[in-house]
Design goal:
The structure holds 3 protein chains of 3 kinds. Chain A is of the alpha/beta class. Chain A has helices at residues 2-9, 13-30, 40-50, 69-85, 100-113, 132-140, 181-193, 206-214, 224-235, 240-272; strands at 57-63, 89-94, 122-127, 172-177, 197-201, 220-223. Chain A has a 6-stranded parallel beta sheet with strand order 3-2-1-4-5-6, with helices on both faces. In chain A, helix 4 (69-85) runs parallel beside helix 5 and helix 6 (132-140) packs parallel to helix 7. Chain A starts with a helix and ends with a helix. The radius of gyration of chain B is 31 Å and the shape is elongated. By secondary structure, chain C is mainly alpha-helical. Chain C is 82% helix and 0% strand. Chain C is extended.
């Protein structure tokens, strides 16, 4: 009896890893999902974009890299689909140089699928170092930071950028965050220039950004895979995030089962001693 | 009714009114903010155009277009002004081919301010903190100041001793912060203490670094630690090295070091991001005693779950004062604690005032919130 | 002199930047930005120092023919290949990350991205083993942590609330069993009654609590995240900020000198 309780209170971590691996793999292969209600902060973000007038400029900031790609890349693609469907203009830049190619890949892919033209419907500006300096200078004049796009074309040669000078000309800023750059966007772009911001982030960073949503400093917050799945549902383009939610539910249940087993073993051993 | 509506859409738009221009406050100059009341026909107009005139040698220049603004906009910040030059503005409401102009605004001159009025509360708090600090610095010279036990810091000696008994090296991880970040400097002060103990116990210490500048500082710190222990010969330059500037490259490298070198004690002291749990769990899997400390609030739960001792937030900052027991350092900790009490009182007062304000609807009760609103 | 000059520089630059926070007028207004720019430029050059340290560390391992020398060879080779390939793509396509460049297509997309994503995905496994080990009902604090973790884990995933009643059922049955077993050896009648009472109440509460969680679990999880979690986090932030101020003052005043030689 004692041995049994000792075994369940000290399960080998390799067994836990194998069970977690199987419980993630099977739902992803079966590709079946649950229906669920979108979170209010995601709905807010979606509705804000829905209410933007045609032709409004949206600035997307890529502030994540390959490590956060599984969480944020599906959301970026679905958001680009939403923005292009509504004929909104997309300007992309970023603060994480190693993540920008991911943003560029998604932008080119979705733009090609939806027949959008570079320079008229979307522009890719690239990366400049400085974070705070970049954000502050963009509030004065974008050309102080980005005088050319990533190909070296002067901004004034691009039809989309001719009338875009600062945040006054940008209807919405969407930040894809895996670190602390989201706080900087709120501190510099929102607080000083009143820029409307939607922040999307990994699940780990999302709790840090909730205070901004509660204080209405950002108009929407899409956190983690759940936020991405909600957005896919709202845009009616279910993809990886939606099927990932089933895997997440099952893994959470598996972890709770392990926790209960561990506690049964722990309490039983304590009593037996 | 139909006639009125047709008339409403056919007549030229009514202009905006009450255009006011003022120097933008609390800046370095070069900015004027312009506010106005919307046109009564705002919903039917296409856009507003804002014009500016500059006074050159007592004559007003030709109007210059500044920007085209969406309907519903009643604010604009002109960031391209020259100081000490007079400017005036007017707003044009445009509807199709027709337009009408507002009256000129008052004359405005931009200038830089020598004091940021919105930051008065910050200045007052800073003065209060400094006063508390100097009071306790004075007291520290006369008596020993008490600070409570911090188990994580008390365990440092035990951890180093355990590692020595096992014949295993120590591993010190300074996190992903740069040398400019305070958690990294706090980590370096703990590193010095650990290096000194390692020198006394004749144990190796391995310090893989994320940032090149931190590597330089860490190398000097470890060398100093061994010198203070009287064993400069035991310092191995190759044990402190730059590993990778990539977050997960660094995590993979450190994990590899843990699995190969099998340190007896692991110190995770600094600023961490998502890799914190990867490091802590790998350390746990090799059976090392782990003492962590970070100010990254999102990573604290992972450290608490996976490591033996955790220094939470400011406990890390108190480390150097706690370990050295230097009176001046202890004084800053005491001063900080009393400021915290003051802040708790202010927050409680603010809470009561805001609750009263929400019940009575009177703006006067927002005075404390308004005072602390900082840009 | 060796220590005095850096301390003086620290004091003057710290003091000037504090003063600059309150003076928007030039030259103070843009001082922080300028200092940041200087730091970025200087730290760029220190990367050369870091690379030198890294290569020397592994070169020493190869020279001494240590056990891990093959890995050091692999590292140095990868470093050289990445550098040459990146420079070659930069010259040929304008930038190593140009859409047509082989560096982006092959190295970044098929090597770098999968490696990074794999390291990040380790977290899923590690959180499972860490949670299993750490969430034990050792005392009141640990039990509260355990309950709130369970509620948030189930409340934040779709259909989590459908499974909550089963877990609650198991938990309350376990509480009932443990209380019953605690009651048996007790001699004091009062203590016996208390433990039997807890046992009975646990059984009674299974259905109402289970039903409550099935309907309200997501809102309870949201409440935990938005109220106590956020409150504690804000308190921590205030404490950390004050600690940072105290530490910064120690550095500026020269009391804290560990970063100096």
């Amino acid at each position: 009896m004692k041995e049994f309780f000792e075994k369940i209170s000290r399960i080998d971590r390799r067994i836990i890893y194998v069970i977690v691996f199987i419980s993630i793999l099977i739902p992803l292969l079966i590709k079946k999902g649950f229906e669920f209600e979108p979170l209010p902060e995601v709905k807010n973000a979606y509705e804000f974009i829905e209410n933007l007038p045609e032709g409004a400029n949206c600035l997307i900031s890529i502030d994540y890299d390959a490590a956060s790609m599984p969480e944020l890349q599906p959301l970026l693609e679905v958001m680009l689909i939403h923005l292009f469907r509504k004929n909104l203009k997309v300007i992309m830049m970023g603060h994480w140089p190693l993540g920008l190619p991911l943003g560029q890949i998604a932008l080119e892919k979705i733009a090609r699928e939806l027949g959008k033209k570079y320079g008229e419907d979307y522009v890719f500006l690239g990366y400049r170092p400085g974070i705070a300096a970049v954000m502050l200078n963009m509030g004065k004049e974008i050309r102080m930071v980005f005088d050319v796009d990533y190909k070296g074309i002067p901004l004034d040669s691009l039809p989309l950028m001719r009338n875009v000078h600062n945040y006054n000309d940008i209807a919405l800023l969407i930040g894809f965050e895996a670190g602390a750059v989201g706080d900087a966007w709120v501190q510099f772009a929102q607080a000083r220039y009143g820029q409307k911001i939607i922040l999307t982030s990994t699940a780990v960073v999302a709790p840090d950004l909730y205070p901004y949503f509660q204080a209405k400093q950002i108009v929407g917050l899409i956190g983690g895979l759940r936020g991405a799945a909600d957005y896919e549902n709202l845009v009616k383009k279910r993809g990886f995030a939606f099927s990932g939610m089933t895997a997440q539910t099952i893994v959470h249940i598996i972890i709770i089962i392990f926790i209960i087993l561990g506690n049964i073993g722990y309490i039983a051993l304590r009593r037996l001693r | 009714m139909k006639t009125i509506l047709i008339f409403y859409f056919l007549i030229p738009p009514l202009p905006p009114s009450n255009v006011k221009a003022n120097d933008y406050p609390n800046d370095a100059g070069g900015k004027i903010e312009i506010k106005w009341e919307l046109s009564p026909m705002d919903s039917t107009i296409d856009c507003y155009i804002i014009f500016r005139q500059e006074k050159i040698k007592d004559k007003w220049s030709l109007p210059e277009t500044l920007s085209i603004l969406k309907r519903g906009t009643n604010y604009f910040l002109d960031s391209n002004c020259k100081d000490k030059i007079e400017y005036r503005y007017f707003i044009r409401a445009v509807k199709g081919e027709e337009f009408s102009d507002s009256e000129f605004s008052n004359v405005a001159i931009s200038s830089g301010q020598w004091f940021h009025k919105k930051r008065t509360s910050v200045l007052i708090l800073l003065i209060v903190i400094t006063l508390f600090l100097f009071y306790f610095l004075k007291r520290a010279k006369k008596e020993e100041l008490f600070i409570r036990k911090i188990p994580g810091l008390d365990a440092i000696d035990e951890a180093v001793g355990r590692s020595t008994e096992m014949g295993r090296p120590l591993l010190f991880i300074l996190g992903l912060g740069t040398i400019a970040e305070i958690p990294t400097i706090a980590g370096l002060s703990i590193l010095k203490r650990v290096a000194k103990k390692a020198g006394e116990y004749e144990t190796d210490i391995i310090v893989p670094c994320f940032d090149p500048l931190v590597y330089v500082a860490a190398s000097e710190t470890v060398k100093e630690g061994f010198i203070e222990a009287g064993r400069p010969d035991l310092f191995k330059e190759g044990n402190v090295f730059f590993l990778s500037y990539d977050q997960f490259g660094y995590a993979a490298g450190v994990d590899g070091i843990m699995l190969r070198e099998r340190p007896g004690a692991i110190f995770l002291q600094g600023y961490f991001y998502a890799e914190s749990l990867i490091l802590a769990e790998t350390g746990n899997s090799i059976g090392a005693i782990q003492i962590s400390g970070t100010t990254a609030v999102t990573q604290l739960p992972f450290f608490i779950a996976a490591t033996d001792y955790t220094l939470i937030g400011e406990e890390m900052y108190a480390a150097s004062a706690y370990l050295t027991r230097e009176p001046l350092s202890l004084a800053t900790i005491k001063g900080e604690d009393y400021v915290k009490i003051l802040l708790i009182i202010i927050i409680t007062l603010g809470l009561i005032l805001e609750t009263i304000a929400s019940f009575t609807g009177k703006d006067i009760f927002h005075f404390l919130k308004n005072f602390f609103e900082v840009i | 002199m060796k220590k005095e000059v850096p301390l003086a520089i620290t004091f003057i630059s710290g003091f000037v930047l504090i003063v600059a926070l309150f003076i928007p007028h030039e030259p103070f207004g843009s001082l922080q930005e300028r200092f940041n720019d200087w730091y970025i430029i200087v730290s760029g050059f220190t990367l050369i120092l870091g690379i030198d340290s890294l290569l020397l560390y592994h070169w020493r391992k190869i020279k001494r023919k240590e056990k891990e020398a093959p890995y050091s060879i692999a590292l140095i080779l990868s470093f050289i290949i990445t550098l040459i390939w990146g420079i070659h793509s930069g010259i040929k396509y304008g930038s190593p990350f140009s859409p047509n460049s082989t560096f982006l297509r092959y190295f970044y997309t098929y090597i770098f991205v999968p490696l990074q994503a794999t390291m990040f995905s380790l977290l899923a496994f590690f959180i499972a083993s860490a949670a299993y080990r750490a969430f034990r009902a050792r005392g009141l604090n640990a039990t509260l942590l355990l309950i709130s973790a369970g509620i948030v884990m189930l409340g934040r995933v779709p259909k989590g609330e459908d499974f909550a009643p089963y877990f609650i059922g198991i938990t309350f049955i376990l509480i009932a069993i443990v209380s019953f077993l605690e009651a048996i050896p007790r001699v004091n009648l009062y203590e016996k009654l208390i433990f039997y009472g807890i046992s009975i109440i646990s059984i009674i509460l299974i259905f109402p609590i289970g039903y409550l969680l099935k309907i309200h679990l997501p809102s309870i999880a949201d409440w935990i995240m938005n109220v106590p979690q956020l409150g504690a986090k804000r308190g921590l932030f205030i404490g950390i900020s004050l600690g940072a101020i105290a530490m910064a003052l120690r550095i500026i005043l020269g009391i804290e000198r560990t970063y100096l030689k």
